[in-house]
Predict the structure.
Amino acid sequence: MFTDGRSRKVVFVAHCLLNQNAISDQTAVYPAAFRDVVDFFLERDVGIVQMPCPELCCLGLDRGDPAGGTREVTVENTRIRAAMADPGPHEMLMRLADLVLLQIREYHKHGFQILGIVGANRSPNCGVDTTSADNQELPGRGLFMEELERRLTARGLSLPMVGLKASDNVPAKLQNLLSGPQS
């Protein structure tokens, strides 16, 4: 099974890294996507699985406040983080984490090499190394990444996670996924 031309290698990537149009107002750094991320994986024949954007799915494109772009990024991200704790958005966040877990488990079950998860640092949901809380950027995971990691651990799975920002040396950070343990 699956003996055709596919590489049988995948990586899971935060939605906004592949679609800057989905992020909160005044935070896009590229017109479309982090081209370095796309190029890095395509040059290595790695399939890119775009995870859903929890904030877009749970709060909408304006994140529930059309004036959100007028606030400092970490202040707005802190507001978004708090809004995600409301019952409706929280329930949707759990369903989105289940959806990503289902995909990871399918690839794992069929022997695909899952290189890891690439998140967006500073994000209140998809941050890996840093997130926004208390109106500042702090070390720690965003809500979605925390939940995804919790679900993976509960099923005995572990995947490396890398967080990115536009100011990073993106290829160097992504290279860490190629040298770490994979499922």
Notes: The first helix runs from residue 15 to 18. The chain has one domain: 21-40+58-179. The chain has seven helices and six strands.
